[in-house]
Amino acid sequence: MSDHYYTNRPTAEHDRRTIEVELRGKKVRLVTDAGVFSKSGLDYGSRVLIDALEIPEKASVLDVGCGYGPIGIAAGILGATSIMMLDVNERAIELARENAAANGVPQAKAVQSDLLEAVSQERFDVIISNPPIRAGKETVHRLFEQASACLKPGGSLWIVIQKKQGAPSAKAKLEELFEQVDEVTKDKGYRIYKALKSL
Q1: pLDDT digits (tens, 9 = 90+) for 82-121
Q2: Pairing between strand 151-162 and 124-129?
Q3: Cys-Cys with 95: which of 68, 104, 176, 178 at CB 3.0–4.6 Å?
Q4: Gene3D superfamilies, alphabetically (predicted)?
Q5: Distance from C-alpha of 173 to C-alpha of 56, rounded to nearest angstrom
Q6: Element (DSSP H or E) covering residue 60
Q7: How many CB atoms lie within 10 A of CB 19?
Q8: DSSP state, residue 41
Q9: By the 8 A CB rule, do 92 and 130 touch?
Q10: What is the CA radius of gyration of the chain?
């Protein structure tokens, strides 16, 4: 059986390659590898999410399920002063560290974690995730619950999810946990939700 991208320790043979993408007007070079999510290029959902993001000045940002780091790096380009990138996949974490450093985002740190476990005692202004849909609804909903606990009052959770992969149930779960949930944009079946934590 082949690895999922949410495997702790991928066994796929390395196949490192460099891709070039534009993140919020800045060209970046990202190293990817076999055994990580969307290794051949930035996936459409992450692109829609990155293009929609609003990061307050001097925000602390958490990127959950960071892969090789494009969302966290985009947060740095948008001015986040502190960025934590989490992924269960140790190969993804190594790449995220390498890519953040190579693209001038030294304020980004990357840590291996099962969802938000590694930062359960920390609080953030903004949490962003392209959640691991293939890990199942229960996992995605647990991510939402943990994100709610890790947001500062007035903070926001940004999520991308495809309509056919459970956007309606995801939105319903977010509405259980957050005072306000907005659909920021939709594009080719992808929905971007912004959930606000009350002050």
Answers
A1: 999 999 999 999 999 999 999 999 999 999 999 999 999 9
A2: parallel
A3: 68
A4: Vaccinia Virus protein VP39 (3.40.50.150)
A5: 25
A6: strand 60-64
A7: 16
A8: S
A9: no
A10: 15
Secondary structure tally for the chain: helices H, strands E: 5, 9
Structure tokens at 164: 């056919």
Q: Which two tokens stand for residue 196?
A: 């606000």
What is the per-residue pLDDT across 24-52, written as a single tens digit (0 to 9) for each? Answer: 999 999 999 999 989 999 999 999 999 99
* Two structure tokens written together for 161: 């999810």
Q: How confident is the model at residue 3 (pLDDT cuts 50, 70, 90)?
A: low
In this structure, which amino acid lies at residue 126?
V
pTM of the predicted model, to two decimals? 0.95
User: Tokens standing for 45?
Assistant: 């959902």
For the beta carbon of residue 21, count every other beta carbon within 10 angstroms: 17
Q: What is the largest CA-CA distance in the chain?
A: 47
Q: Is 146 helix (H, G, I), strand (E, B) or coil?
A: helix
* Position 45, amino acid: G
